[in-house]
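User: Hey, my collaborator sent me this sequence without any context and asked if I could get a structure. I don't really work with proteins. Can you help?
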Amino acid sequence: MRNVEVSEDEELGELEDKTEILTLRSKRTERARKKQAKRVKRPSCNSPDLLSLPYELVLDILALLRPSDVFNLQRVNRTFHQFIVQEEHRISRAITSWRYVCLSKCFRLPVLMDDIDPSFHAVIQIPERQKSVIIHKNPYQHIQSPNPAEICTCLTCLLRWTALCVIVDFAHWQRNLDNGEPIPMIQRGKHPTWNQSLVESNVAVVRKALRSPLWHARLLEAHLDSTVRSISRHAANKGNKRRRFRMSKEDVESGSDLFLEKSGPPSFDFPFHRDNYYMLEAYLPNRGWSAENNRWMYVPAEQHDIDFQFIVNWVKRQQKTASGQGN
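Assistant: No problem. I've predicted the 3D structure and written it out in structure-token form, which is a compact way to encode the shape of the chain:
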């Protein structure tokens, strides 16, 4: 028999490659897979957002918001926070110019002592003059007297301070008034801790408004809400036939105070006690109706300058009189 040589391949047959990728199953690989999936879904940092729009357009958009909305937007991230802080004056002015046309003239800010020439500080704060305005500085149960080292104590600024404090306190009790729940009364001479805390909290908000136009606009927003709720409550009282402001559903939905520019009852009486809140419909100080012009006339912003000059002249007369008596 002839010897036949058989190759090794023929002896073993044709080789097949049956190797497969092993499935890795471990906690480490599972964590890596999840991180990769998140990276795929995460939007690019270069994706367009509000602040990528032209500057003027961004301001126009923010001007349509309420002040409370702007504060919420400010908390979104650091970029929004920095932009709003930088443009606070423009944003606040734009919002106020169409939402709070009336209220911005009724509730002007008192002038800070920091904004008054230091050479006049002693003139404003002399004890004799402070005694002459003591009736306006006596603390009420719901309003704290201002710090004469912080704001000007001319008559105009004292009234402005009081009006701003009323905004915050009146807004605090709106839920009680809506639900018909009585506001806690305080006995004369008593100073409960809860009321002291509330008054101090109110003052803290007013002090923010003294230095931040956005906080000032936020106070105007709060008072418009209080006024709308108050008018609605009185309108629902069919037994109350008093004259009131005409307010439609569209007026409420507009988020603007323009309906308060219409003819209505005078509403500048100061609520010196929380009892006054029950019948208070629209507290709008520093204005009066002119029958001749058929419109509301507002106390001008320059009234502070007039009162300030009155103080200077008064001090000069006092010094002249004292000098004459000395001679």
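In plain terms: The radius of gyration is 34 Å. You can pass these tokens on to your collaborator as they are.
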